[in-house]
Amino acid sequence: MNKNDLISAVADSSALTRSDAAKAVESVFEAISGALKKGDEVRLVGFGTFSVAKRKASTGRNPRTGEPMEIKASAQPKFKAGKGLKDAVN
After folding, report:
1. What is the dihedral of CA 7, 10, 30, 80, to 10 degrees?
2. pLDDT in tens for each of the 90 residues of the chain?
3. Helix (H, G, I), strand (E, B), or coil: what is residue 33?
4. pTM score, two decimals?
């Protein structure tokens, strides 16, 4: 399922127009992204938790030349599925 399929599914199940469903889906994505950007955690009970993991700077190797290179510290988004989602899939 891609983003357009998700918008169509939301429109069908909620009796919204496709454009209203697109705005709703976009708003949810923006709200989650904004919270993660601030360093907050987003918990959706029964679905899962979105969080940010900090990765430390490290030294890696360039696979083409083999020379060492510095890898910058970064923040990575994470998602941990909740019990409701796990049960729905299994």
Report:
1. -110
2. 999 999 999 999 998 999 999 999 999 999 999 999 999 999 999 999 999 999 999 999 999 999 999 999 999 999 999 999 999 999
3. helix
4. 0.78
